[in-house]
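dumping this here so i dont lose it
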């Protein structure tokens, strides 16, 4: 799905529309994780992740159900390196969930628009050559890069926040995070309760900041 096709597929929706956010969950990715939540919320959209899936549910079915319920999906494939734990292993969850979204876009009755994000230019052609012809959004592994590329992806009627406004929302979320973690009794932002509270803060900040 080339970028131009993605843009043509975007159509006015009654807000809020859900966005499936497919990213790695680890401490090195925390700033980018918060940037995605802040940026997506700035557009008046609702971030959704697999963090929300109950532990007792059949995971694959619930992931696909979650994707089907979302108007858009954002897939960050920037973490293609081997992890540090033995045995060294690449991460397959992100490309697998991208495949589910591509399949849903092909066979689904309602339109689903997916976007691929990466940190390095031209790496996608090597890591996932089946997507040759798809233009990834290159964020350079930086918060401002995420905001810039979300602005390039979500060209649609309605809210069109600037990078500066997205940065303001991100700063509001970052200031609130320690209290959110304390209330949840955890040090990890990658938990269901913490994710939902971050989204509430981001949405409220977006409502104040983006006009």
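and the seq i came up w/
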């Amino acid at each position: 799905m080339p970028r131009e096709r993605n843009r043509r597929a975007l159509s006015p929706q009654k807000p809020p529309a859900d966005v499936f956010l497919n990213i790695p969950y680890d401490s090195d990715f925390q700033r980018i994780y918060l940037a995605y939540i802040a940026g997506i919320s700035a557009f008046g959209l609702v971030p959704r992740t697999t963090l929300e899936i109950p532990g007792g549910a059949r995971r694959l079915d619930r992931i696909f159900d979650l994707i089907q319920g979302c108007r858009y999906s954002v897939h960050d494939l920037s973490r293609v390196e081997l992890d540090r734990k033995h045995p060294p292993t690449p991460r397959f969850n992100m490309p697998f969930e991208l495949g589910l979204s591509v399949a849903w876009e092909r066979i689904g009755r309602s339109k689903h628009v997916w976007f691929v994000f990466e940190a390095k230019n031209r790496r996608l052609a090597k890591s996932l050559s089946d997507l040759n012809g798809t233009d990834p959004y290159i964020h350079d592994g930086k918060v401002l890069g995420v905001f810039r590329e979300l602005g390039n992806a979500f060209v649609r009627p309605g809210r069109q926040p600037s990078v500066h406004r997205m940065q303001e929302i991100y700063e509001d979320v970052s200031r609130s995070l320690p209290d959110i973690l304390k209330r949840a009794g955890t040090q990890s932002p990658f938990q269901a309760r913490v994710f939902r509270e971050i989204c509430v803060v981001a949405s409220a900040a977006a409502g104040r900041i983006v006009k």
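Confidence is low (pLDDT under 50) at residues 1-13.
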